[in-house]
Sequence to fold (135 residues):
Amino acid sequence: MRHHPPAIAAFLATGSFAVVGASADRAKYGNKVLRCYRQHGLPVVGVNPKLPSVEGVPCHASLAAIPGPPRAVSIVAPPAAAAAIVADAIAAGVRHLWFQPGAEDRAAVATANAAGLTVIADGSCLLVALGFRDD
Fold:
């Protein structure tokens, strides 16, 4: 059993996850993060407006398009997209955001914090926190 810092433990305890930036390319982190959730038996959906599914998991065009939106979201997208992703998350009622390393944008993080979301944007990685096997 792994012990996680409080913000990561709270994120993982939500039980409802999405990966913004889900990718069909197994070499990309948007794919690895999605597979990591699956490897650990956690319910996950993808967000990618160009794909109907990734690794057998449904993809949606936006967080707002997900029925019964997830409470926790991993962001694996360029920082330039962060402001729009945060706005989508706020509109969809998401409560937790985890900016995976390289996806962080200071202004978007500040907006999410100001809206009352719990945000992880300290360089922590889901793949490390849970453990990932690149199978």
Q: What stands out?
A: The longest helix spans residues 29-39. The first strand starts at residue 17 and ends at 20. Residues 8 and 120 are 7 Å apart (CA to CA). The chain has a mean pLDDT of 95.
